[in-house]
Design goal:
This protein is an alpha+beta fold and about 150 residues long. The chain is built from one helix and seven strands.
């Protein structure tokens, strides 16, 4: 038992170090590690962010999530998606599972965007388990064309 307790302590220390690096914008884990609640950190939902000249776009994988539970908020250059994923089987005791890898419960995912957006124009659509968010760039974040005067 002491061995397992040591591993739990080391895992908690690793998560704290990862959080410290993430606070500085550095990602320490190249992939999602596991779905073991309380054992390893998980990022849910997985998010892609891309842009064109007028807007940023975020796509979050949210299969099995009730769209009515989804909340999207934007403050300056920070996008937050939260909601709840219901358990697929209700009334089954935890000890009855032979394998339980699909996470359930409440989640919150915060993503730092590369520039500020106009929160008044944000649009979110949910279809086929994907939450698509359009985030118009703030006017001051759009590139400005500057003419060059020739003397």
């Amino acid at each position: 038992m002491a061995y397992w307790g040591t591993l739990n302590g080391m895992d908690a220390l690793r998560r704290e170090i990862d959080r410290a690096f993430e606070d500085f914008g550095l990602r320490t884990s190249p992939f999602r590690t596991a779905f073991l609640p309380g054992r390893t950190g998980r990022r849910y939902p997985l998010v892609n962010v891309y842009e064109d000249k007028d807007a940023l776009y975020a796509e979050a994988l949210t299969p099995g999530v009730n769209p009515e539970s989804l909340n999207v908020s934007v403050v300056r250059n920070t996008l937050t998606v939260s909601g709840e994923k219901q358990a697929t089987v209700n009334g089954v005791k935890a000890e009855a599972f032979h394998r339980n890898e699909r996470g359930a419960g409440q989640f919150t995912r915060t993503v730092e965007l590369p520039l500020e957006v106009d929160p008044s124009g944000v649009v979110a659509n949910y279809n086929d388990g994907i939450l698509r968010i359009t985030l118009p760039k703030a006017e001051e974040a759009k590139p400005q064309q500057i003419s060059v005067n020739v003397a």
